[in-house]
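Posted in: Protein Modeling Q&A

I'm a second-year student putting together a small comparison for a lab meeting, and my supervisor asked me to include a predicted structure for Protein AF-9 homolog. I've never done this before, so apologies if this is the wrong subforum. The sequence is pasted below exactly as I got it from our records. If anyone can share the structure token output, I'd also love a short note on what stands out.
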Amino acid sequence: MASGDRVRVRGVSIFRPIIYGNTATVLTPKERESLSSPDHTHKWTVAVRSAASVPDSEQVGGADDLGYFIKRVTFKLHDTYSNPARNIDKPPFEVSETGWGEFEIQIRITFIPEAGEKAMVMYHHLKLHPWTASGEPEIPPLDAAIKAGPVHSWQYDEVVFNDPYQNFLNLLTSHPPTPLPKTKKKPVPFHLANPGSLEASKGGVPEFISQMEKEEADRLEEARQAVIAEQDRWRAMLIEKEKEAQRLTKQI
Ligand code: SLL
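Accepted answer (user: helix_wrangler)
Welcome! Here is the predicted structure, written out as tokens:
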């Protein structure tokens, strides 16, 4: 083992932007005929990809190959599927299937051993039916759904490595992520955390832009502040209760 393998670089934090989620399309009558399960209505792909998209591509994200730091992605599908735990050991980290129903998919990202990091587990609700601003599920007739085009449901996230091993840090810095575009050229991906974006998400293949990175950071900061405020509230309450306990002890 070379020196540097076991040295953590203290105080350094490095992240890689990823997206996870799915795209779903209604099957054509012809496609349905050729399936062994005639009740299936949609084809879908669930994936973990780099956040940046390839210019002029029909795919959301995936400009960068994430195989340099991800060893395996396990997608745990609904038990109605055969071999529900799908291990993908090289890019593209994705699973394509057909089906009729939405369900929760567990996504486990295992990093390369050099990272010395625990696996990261996320959950994604497989989305087949078009978004509604309210978030209420609404299943349109199939012909209307075909007209509306593919459904996209993608979450932006950042894989953060704190105090990385020197060698792993070198590996990461030698693979800088493709920067996200600064301006919006395509629709933006819709997410319920941002219901106002429903209109801006329509009309084609969505693309993540740097604005969304900032929005994600703002949401995290907001959550952090809320946690601190909550901690302060509990601490104040605790002090109050301790005073009361002292008072009561004295009275005995
Ligand atoms: C529901 N709770 O009731 C969900 C379950 C299951 C989805 C959805 C096909 C499986 C197969 C399929 O779409 N399963 O035929 O292999 O909506």
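A couple of things worth pointing out for your meeting: The pocket of SLL is lined by residues 37, 78, 80-81, 99-103 (CB under 6 Å). Residues 210-251 form the longest helix (42 residues).
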